[in-house]
Write a structure and sequence with these properties.
Two copies of one chain form a homodimer.
Chain A (H helix, E strand, L loop, with lengths): L4 H8 L3 H13 L3 E4 L3 E4 L12 E3 L12 E11 L2 H7 L6 E11 L2 E11 L18 H9 L5 E10 L2 H7 L6 E10 L5 E9 L4 E8 L4
Helix pairs in contact in A: 1-2
The structure holds a DNA duplex (19 and 19 nucleotides).
Chain lengths: 216, 216
DNA sequence: CAGTGGTCTAGACCACGTC
DNA sequence: ACGTGGTCTAGACCACTGG
């Protein structure tokens, strides 16, 4: 909780109405929360998990049931920056980054193979973390362990051919067709935090997204 | 342009600051536009064309160049409501609807085959319109000819098999693999206006979307 | 230069939550 | 009862736009 509008106005030597306008602005920006009769509070940066749960593996019976696939981490190591990751991170990137590989399963079957690239030195600690204890969603981990909030992402979907690794992990023939999702995720300042490439089994792959002003 | 804040405050018998707050609210809701030294204006409902240009057919040389594919309308007729369209439109739907079929081409090659379902009687006039004169984007036509604004859409992407018709139009072998996009588009009130099913040639298909708070 | 909106002041009264 | 934010008042000065 921060001091009341009365105290703040006095402290900063401005009129009450002026302070009210300033506070209103911060509320509009989502930084404060005001409750009549109670006070003004700093808002926790809300992680909109719903925004990032949009890999829908369609339930056999009801495609409207969303599922968070189970996660199995294969490896997590420091590697030289691949060129496309370099392009996404921009000029101010280090020469190396962290590469995390994992498989996501549903009902015991591998559905997605993910390669996640993260900036160094920001995520250096990840190398020494016990990855087994992590939940299936990465962004809450970024927020809790590293204080890094992912607030926007650009996904690009296309069709491609499985690599040797992705074919093996998805239990497909090599060079089988796969769904390809490439994601660039950013913090609120627009800095690219993550580059991700995902291969998915095509026959059960489903991606859903809603754009525009959501009706209430 | 609407009257100045001074005149409005006087007319409605409220203080200037109160009228200012009220106007501010309407600005926040996107209904008004205020310009200092000029006046207050009713805002045209902005059609966010950028929101709906997200079928990216990747340019061979530069995948970052967005393209609006050319449009060729094949048919436009009244048909009974297919079950999945019924489900999208809901209980208050008529028993028939308009079905519009078209092919979208780029560099003369067919890339996408679209089946667009629209509500009756809202779009009744579409049957008698000269479709040749329409531009490649449908939503501006909805707005200009019918006063209907599309403000949100949910897309669902998956992989499927070409139908007889889509294979023919895309110049593929029958039962060839295709990209499938299903779209439900709504007006600001949340009413479903359009149901669309799109088949795309997989090898050149690319779909890009950005979610979250876009950095400035 | 006249009129517009943008910002600010110094009050007032009210609705709501907590104690 | 008291302190909180929500709304309102009746002014003031400034910055910008247009003719």
């Amino acid at each position: 909780m921060i001091p009341s509008e009365n105290r703040l106005a006095e402290e900063y030597g401005v009129a009450l109405a002026t302070m009210r306008m300033a506070l209103k602005q911060l509320v509009d920006e989502g930084l404060l929360d005001r409750r009549r009769g109670t006070g003004t509070f700093v808002k926790q940066p809300a992680f909109r998990a719903d925004l990032f749960r949009f890999f829908h593996v369609h339930d056999v019976d009801d495609p409207d049931i969303p599922v968070i696939p189970e996660s199995r981490i294969l490896s997590c190591q420091e590697v030289p920056l691949p060129p496309e990751v370099q392009k996404a991170f921009g000029a101010d990137s280090a020469s190396h980054c962290i590469k995390l590989e994992r498989v996501r399963l549903w009902s015991g079957e591998p559905m997605l193979f993910e390669e996640v690239y993260l900036r160094l030195p920001d995520f250096e600690e990840l190398l020494s973390l016990n990855l087994k204890t992590m939940g299936p969603l990465l962004y809450p981990v970024f927020l809790e362990k590293f204080g890094i909030l992912i607030s926007s992402a650009t996904d690009e979907l296309s069709f491609g051919i499985a690599t040797e690794t992705s074919a093996k992990q998805l239990e497909l023939a090599s060079e089988a067709p796969v769904a390809v999702i490439q994601r660039i995720a950013r913090n609120p300042a627009g800095r690219v935090i993550e580059f991700r490439r995902v291969h998915g089994r095509p026959e059960r792959f489903r991606y859903r997204v809603t754009l525009g002003d959501q009706p209430a």
